[in-house]
Specification:
This protein has two domains: about 5-240, 3-Layer(bab) Sandwich (Hsp33 domain); about 245-320, CBS domain Like (Alpha-Beta Complex). The longest helix is centred in the last third of the chain and has 20 residues, at about 285-305. The strands form three sheets. A six-stranded mixed beta sheet has the order 7-6-3-4-5-11, covered by helices on one side. Strands 8-9-2-1-10 form a five-stranded antiparallel beta sheet, sandwiched between helices. Helix 1 crosses helix 2 and helix 9 (about 255-265) packs antiparallel against helix 10. It starts with a strand and ends with a strand. With about 325 residues, it is of the alpha+beta class. About 40% of the residues lie in helices and about 30% in strands. The structure holds zinc ion. Zinc ion (ZN) binds next to loops.
Length: about 325
């Protein structure tokens, strides 16, 4: 069973729900970044959240970024998704190991620490939408639920999980988001509250072979007059969008002086994509060509006012240029 997201609504339109299986996506992230089990859990949960939230975007070209910054040993998590649940991400410190929590679980909350969570949506408008919340637990699922409630004013239940073997193999990953629409009445809320406390962890259900639709049906089972209709099934995968051409544009955006430094001091430049761990090498000859392009850009900029700095900062997020040593 490949990774996918199922979307559903209740017939009366009082609730909408999403469930995802993201096992292969998270396994690919763990492979690319050589993640410790706890780093896999943190990045896996965030990748799953972003994949589900990408299905709430309205336009094909919209993108979504989740940034978690905490004072724990993991440092932070960054995940980006396009509107088709092509997700990519990284954690600042992929090789964090911590003792299991008292209930025998990976201590994600301790690895993340205290801090905040940002959701940035690029909806093709002049300014991106930015939602900001303080972390309530660092377990990620609860933090995303809090984000929905406080930034988007949508009461939501969020469950995100990864089931990882002691050796670090991703056995299952996925999650669900259930959102109450303004018409939802009290009866539904109390039913769901009770039900969500009773059901097993989402990663266990997936490991046992339940599909995302099975999980949604299971959650709503037993609620009278609350028939669930699956409206969409769409794929999800780990996919980076970097390329040599993209990296060239990032170097050009650094400006003439910076490129000149790379030529003189480093005799080349290595550009590293944090999302897929690909390293691109640019030698002096290529840098000379890019410097000329940067010169042309600079001349143009004299006549046209642009907010280049901002654009460059945005473009280079997730990429870094290393010195050649
Ligand atoms: Zn990449």
């Amino acid at each position: 069973m490949k990774d996918y997201i199922a979307r559903a609504v209740t017939v009366g339109g009082q609730v909408r729900a999403f469930a995802a299986k993201t096992t292969d996506t998270v396994a690919e992230a763990a492979r690319i970044h050589n993640l410790s089990p706890i780093a896999s859990a943190a990045l896996g949960r965030t990748l799953t959240a972003a994949a589900i939230m990408s299905k709430m975007l309205k336009s094909e070209k919209d993108t979504l970024t989740i940034q978690i910054k905490g004072d724990g040993p993991l440092g932070g998590v960054v995940v980006v998704s396009d509107a088709h649940a092509n997700v990519r991400g990284y954690v600042h410190n992929p090789d964090v190991y911590l003792p299991l929590s008292s209930d025998g679980k990976l201590n994600v909350s301790q690895a993340i620490g205290r801090g905040y969570l940002n959701v940035i949506k690029d909806l093709g408008l002049k300014e991106p939408y930015i939602g900001y919340v303080k972390l309530v637990s660092g377990e990620i699922g609860e933090d995303i639920a809090y984000y929905f409630a406080s930034s988007e004013q949508i009461p939501s239940a969020v469950s995100l999980g990864t089931y990882i073997s002691p050796e670090g193999k991703i056995l299952s990953a996925g999650g669900f988001v259930i959102q109450l629409l303004p018409e939802a009445d009290e009866k539904i809320i109390s039913f769901l509250e009770k039900k969500l406390q009773e059901i097993p962890p989402v990663s266990n259900m997936l490991y046992e072979g339940k599909t995302p639709e099975d999980i949604l049906k299971y959650i709503f089972e037993g609620m009278k007059d609350l028939e669930l209709k699956i409206t969409e099934k769409s794929p999800c995968k780990y996919k980076c969008n970097c390329s040599r051409e993209r990296m060239e544009r990032n170097i050009v955006a650094l400006g003439v002086e910076e490129i000149q430094d790379m030529i003189e001091e480093q005799e080349g430049a290595e550009v590293h994509c944090h999302f897929c761990n690909t390293r691109y090498w640019f030698d002096v000859k290529e840098l000379e060509r890019l410097k000329n392009e940067a010169l042309a850009v600079k001349d143009e900029a004299k006549t046209i006012e642009t907010n280049e700095e901002e654009a460059a900062a945005k473009k280079t997020e997730g990429e870094s240029i290393k010195k050649n040593q």
